[in-house]
């Protein structure tokens, strides 16, 4: 069959699609990946066929300009802790803010129209779309193509959508605003179709998270074992050598820059970790390293190292909570110290600690001494490693991408029939 994958032009969001795309190709299916032109090199570097559609949206510049209102709805998602996250005011505010300032911008008319034109010309049997890339659902609806979302993290979009609709039903008829339905409904009508919740949820949802950490959303789920993909990867010689003492990875993503939390410098953190009997592998770019000055003897500074190659050699990881980093560590059974406070990073941090598989330190509470003590704890507490290995075993029990392909073949052949809320399609 022909399978069209789509993702707006962001490398890390695209990476979650790659192992499934490989599996589809290995099973003999024809696969193309459609995105804005900026993603074409990243797609082809993964060995996949790129189809540029639409125009570039300068995603990183956009995220730097969206302002405090959007940051309010993308920072610190703390489900089960903050009751206001289920209030009508919060849920309406989230939809009212994110639809015009993010969702509709990365799924603008040129992207949607280009994807629809490609779908009509190429006539795929199935569309798989990264879960922020609603253009995939619109193209599927306009052409009658079966379609599924592919998650790379917690399904907050549909979780908040479910809560939003429940609260909306309790509002007076004249106060039942629905920015998501208005935007997607207008886009669907322009293409000759109509809106329903399938444009938000997909007909099925492919989910790589451990089953115990998936959010209840009522969607039809196709579970899939997580297979790490970090882009171009070359394994350095030192990674291939057995570490002489425990190895700790410190990786903080692009958002940490020079400080953690309320101004704790990376230099202070590395100094505190200098007293830990371990090799600290810190992934920092050249600008960060230049400002550090001398570092302890047990610290190895690197620009980049393929995380999937590094994790099997590590005894623990300290990181910002990003989904790809978390999943790569989790699928290798590595205890984690998570400092997350962005979108679902905070949720994952709390879930990790609740599972006993690591520690959560809120960025606002990070201290150099506290981080050093946390590292010592995960190195010496056998219960944390045992819990991390239980999470690994849970993930490895899920169907591989190759096994998921057979499920997708069956679902695509059904033409979208046989769906049901909350079911596991596998």
From TrEMBL:
Domain Erythromycin biosynthesis protein CIII-like N-terminal: 22-253
UniProt-listed InterPro entries: EryCIII-like_C (IPR010610), EryCIII-like_N (IPR048284), Glycosyl_450act (IPR030953), Glycosyltransferase_28 (IPR050426), UDP_glucos_trans (IPR002213)
Pfam families recorded: EryCIII-like_C, EryCIII-like_N
Annotated keywords: Antibiotic biosynthesis, Glycosyltransferase, Transferase
One record GO biological process: antibiotic biosynthetic process
GO molecular function, one term: hexosyltransferase activity
Domain Erythromycin biosynthesis protein CIII-like C-terminal: 268-411
Membership in a protein family: Belongs to the glycosyltransferase 28 family.
Protein name as it appears in the record: Glycosyltransferase
Organism: Streptomyces antibioticus
Gene of this entry: oleG2
């Amino acid at each position: 069959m022909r399978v069209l994958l789509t993702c707006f032009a962001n490398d890390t969001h695209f990476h979650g699609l790659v192992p499934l795309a490989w599996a589809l190709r290995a099973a003999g299916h024809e696969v193309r990946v459609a995105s804005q032109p900026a993603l074409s090199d990243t797609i082809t570097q993964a060995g996949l066929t790129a189809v540029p559609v639409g125009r570039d949206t300068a995603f990183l510049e956009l995220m730097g300009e969206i302002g405090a209102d959007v940051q309010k709805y993308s920072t610190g998602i703390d489900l089960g802790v903050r009751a206001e996250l289920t209030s009508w005011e919060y849920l309406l505010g989230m939809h009212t803010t994110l639809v015009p300032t993010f969702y509709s911008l990365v799924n603008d008319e040129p992207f949607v129209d280009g994807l629809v034109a490609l779908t009509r010309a190429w006539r795929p049997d199935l569309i798989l779309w990264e879960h922020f890339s609603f253009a995939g659902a619109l193209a599927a609806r306009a052409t009658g193509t079966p379609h599924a979302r592919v998650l790379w993290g917690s399904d907050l979009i549909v979780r908040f959508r479910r809560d939003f609709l429940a609260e909306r039903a309790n509002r007076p008829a004249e106060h039942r605003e629905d920015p998501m339905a208005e935007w997607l409904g207008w886009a669907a009508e322009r293409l000759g179709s109509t809106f329903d919740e399938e444009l938000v949820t997909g007909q099925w949802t492919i989910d790589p998270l451990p089953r115990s950490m998936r959010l209840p959303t009522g969607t039809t789920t196709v579970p899939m074992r997580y297979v790490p993909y970090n882009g171009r990867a070359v394994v350095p010689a030192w990674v291939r050598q057995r570490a002489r003492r425990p190895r700790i990875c410190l990786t903080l993503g692009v958002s940490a820059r020079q400080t953690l939390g309320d101004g704790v410098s990376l230099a202070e953190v590395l100094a505190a970790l200098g007293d830990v009997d371990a090799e600290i592998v810190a992934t920092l770019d050249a600008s960060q390293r230049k400002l550090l000055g001398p570092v302890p003897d047990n610290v190895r500074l690197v620009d980049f190292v393929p995380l999937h190659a590094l994790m099997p050699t590590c005894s623990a990881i300290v990181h910002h909570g990003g989904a790809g980093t978390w999943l790569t560590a989790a699928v290798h059974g590595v205890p984690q110290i998570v400092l997350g406070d962005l979108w679902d990073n905070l949720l994952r941090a709390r879930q990790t600690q609740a599972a006993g598989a690591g520690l959560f330190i809120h960025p606002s509470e990070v201290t150099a001494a506290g981080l050093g003590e946390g590292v010592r704890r995960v190195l010496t507490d056998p219960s944390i490693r045992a819990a991390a290995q239980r999470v690994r075993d849970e993930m490895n029990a899920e169907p591989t991408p190759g096994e998921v392909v057979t499920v997708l073949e069956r679902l695509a052949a059904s033409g979208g029939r046989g769906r049901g809320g909350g079911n596991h399609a596998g």
